[in-house]
Structure formats: C-alpha cells, structure tokens
Amino acid sequence: MMNTPAKKRKALGARKPITNESQNVDHTLEQGTNKWLKGISAQFDDTEAPEEVNVQFIPLHLIYTDPSNPRDLEIGKDEIQANIDRLRLPEDAFREDGEWFEAYCDRVKNVFGDTKKTQDLLSIARFSADLKGPENLINPVSVWREETSFYLFAGERRFLAHVLLETQHIATRVWKTKPSSLDKTILQWQENHSRENLTLWEIIRNMDQILEEWGKVYPSSKMTVRKFAQLVSVKRSQAAVYLKVVLSNDKGLLDSMKAGDIKAIEVAHELVCLNGRDRKEFIGRIQSGEIVTKEMIVAGKKGQVGKVQSKKPSSPVKQVALKLNKKANPQPVAFIVNTVVEKLNQSDLTERIKLCDLEDPSGLSTALTELLEYIDKEGFSDK
C-alpha cells in the first residue's frame, strides 16, 4: 500500500485545490460567501486565549490600517509596496556592523523628498532592520475582523515593518467583535505610548481623541483629573498638566505643537496659563525660532520678561543650559541630568524632571534649571 504524504498547510485564504476526489461533491454548496468564510475560519491557528481575543498568523494582504489611529503616520502600506524596489532594505541593514543608513536616507529622500513621510519611513526602516524577520516579533499587532478583512487598531509600525520586510504573514491578536470607539482609542493610546516615543503633538492628539470618545459614552459626566489619570494611565500630577493643555483647544498652540516648534509639555502648560494676548506673543516668538523656556513664560506672567532676558545667571552651568540651541546634541546633557536625579533619589524632583522632554533643547534647559535650583535650594552645592 502506498503511503499518503502528509498534507501541507495551505496559506490563509487559499482555496482547496481541485482533485479527482471532489467529483462527487455538490458544487452548488461550495459557492457563495459562507463557503469562503468557512474556508478562512478553518485555517486559523487558534490558541488558548480569552473568549473575545485569540492569536493568529494572518496574511498581510488581508489587513487594512485604521485611518483614525492618532499616531499620525504619513507613510502607508500601499506606498511602501508601490515603491518597494527603491525602498527595499540592503543586506547591510541586517548586520551588526552594517553602515547602511546614510545611503538609505538619500535613497528614501529621492522617493519622497525631505518630508515627514520620509522621516516616518526611515523610522520604520530602523525598526525593520532591528526586527530582521517576523519570527522575532514579540508583541503581536491587534486587529478586529469584519468578514474576510481585518482592521488594524494597534501596532501600525510593526505592521508596516513587515510590509517593508516583504513578509507574507504577521502575528496578530484578533478581536472577534469590534471594540467600541472608546475602547479602541484607549488601546491605541496604550499601544503607542508604550512602544514609541511620541511627539508632544501626537500625545495631545491621542488624549484629545480619548476625551472626545469618552464624552460620547458619558455625555452627562464631567471629566476630572482623577478620571483622566486612570484613562491614560499616568499620575495625577501629570494628568492635570496634560488635561489643561488638551482642554485649552488653542489653535496657535496646537499648530505650534504640530509643527514641532513646541515639544515640551511644561512649556505648553505654562502657555495655557497665560492670557490670550501674552500667549499669542510667546507663540509668535517660538514660531520665529526663539527658544522659550518655562522660566521665561513664568517671568512673563509676572511682568519680568525683560529682566529674564538680561539677567546674568547665578552659575555658569545654568547659563549653558539656557543657551542650548536647536542644533545642540541633547544626549550628553540628558545623561548628566538623569544620572544626578537618580543619585539624589528625591521623588518630587524626579516627578518634575519627568515632565520635561529631555530630547528637546527647550525641555532639557528647563530640566537642567530645575535640577540646579533644587541643588542650590537643598544646599548640596555647599557640600
């Protein structure tokens, strides 16, 4: 007797091949949407999981990105695939000592120009080079299913990395029912907040969308700092700052954050605390290229703007902090700040420093000033 070879597992969505064994089948029963849906369902790799969610490997071509995801990526699946011959990662990208990125940057700029789309693609390319292959993905992306399509609501960068790597499948957590708008928005926020260093604009946009969806579910309730802290999973002190900025809905402030002119939340918060005329004046100065710190805005509220600009710093280190410009490399100074804060181990100081964006010269200047003032106040500088 001839041994029958083991059947190979078909790719998801593939139809059963026609063989002589199918001659006795009623073909009328094999047609239509129900047959197609059953064929797809039968090929899922279900694992033990909560009733509403399970983990499966799904072909990329069945997955669509969610345009409402507030991460604000400008590059998409179709554009990557349409330009894959020019965007494909070189072999050097997968070697530890590969010097590929500079030449790759030039290649991407030739496709998309010097735009945010280029920046988004380069960020995804770096992630793809680190990932190397789909088998190395630790955290599956999250999708919900509608008939034969799957809609991505968390994990867009990982999904696009698989597109750039030209893989066929990706590990997903599949929700059997579509999450509510509020649940989806909160899940997207948690995903983005934990996986990627978002810009201040992206954070505020995420939070604004959460507030909008929350208001639809609880129209008669008032948002409080405590509720907001629970929704976005931050401490109350941080929630109070973010909430005030989000609720301000100041167009000039939002435009400046979107353009990247305002990157530090403490600066945005102090601007919100100003009256409309003073806020407009400060925002205009920021948009013109001036570096404005939290201390300058606070002094402005007290009518001391001129004094702040002409005041001689009490220490040479503080003077250096206030002179950081947009082209300065913030990493060495950020390392010093983090090291000193860790050594001092003072919770109130740590919380204040956490509110500063240490990747931005303005936020770094504020953090360094906070640190120096704390050291001077506590008398460490005399020891």
Question: Overview of this structure, please?
Answer:
The protein is an alpha/beta fold and 383 residues long. The chain folds into three domains: 53-185, no CATH class; 198-311, Orthogonal Bundle (Arc Repressor Mutant, subunit A); 312-383, no CATH class. 52% of the residues lie in helices and 8% in strands. It has helices at residues 33-41, 77-82, 84-87, 101-112, 116-131, 156-165, 181-195, 200-217, 225-232, 236-248, 251-259, 265-272, 276-287, 294-301, 305-310, 316-322, 331-344, 347-354, 361-378; strands at residues 53-59, 63-65, 141-146, 149-154, 169-175. A hairpin with a 2-residue loop joins β3 and β4 (149-154). α7 runs antiparallel to α8 and α16 packs antiparallel against α19. The chain is globular, with a radius of gyration of 26 Å. Residues 10-30, 40-50 and 304-323 have low confidence and may be disordered.
Short description:
The protein has helices at residues 33-41, 77-82, 84-87, 101-112, 116-131, 156-165, 181-195, 200-217, 225-232, 236-248, 251-259, 265-272, 276-287, 294-301, 305-310, 316-322, 331-344, 347-354, 361-378; strands at 53-59, 63-65, 141-146, 149-154, 169-175.
